[in-house]
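for the writeup, i need someone to sanity check this before i put it in the appendix. the sequnce is what the collaborator sent (i think, or maybe the updated version? ugh). structure was predicted straight from it, no edits. if anything looks off just tell me and ill rerun, i have time this weekend
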Amino acid sequence: MAESKLRDLSKDFAVKSLRLCENINGHFSLRNQLERAATSIGANIHEANYAHSRADFIAKLQIALKECYETEYWLELLVDAEIFDKSSIADLQTQCGTIRRLLVASINTAKNNQK
């Protein structure tokens, strides 16, 4: 159940991130990095569902978590560079934080079940 919610949230987050990126003028490298990191979260969560082992499952979720942290960085940078104001991306930042917390909980649960 939680994995389905995580998949749905990460896919919705990726779509919203792509829409945000359409509004970044110039700054191609920043836009590219945000697109890659934000969409990678969901891709790795999706891939984890087809893992060959519990260790592979955990590894995929850990990659998704790293991408989530990277995405948070790029979103912060957009605000700090005054490309967007904080209020215009607050929902994305909140959603990214929610996904991050769910990933941490899922990883911890998977590790505990591995023992």
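The radius of gyration is 15 Å. The chain has four helices and no strands.
thx in advance!!
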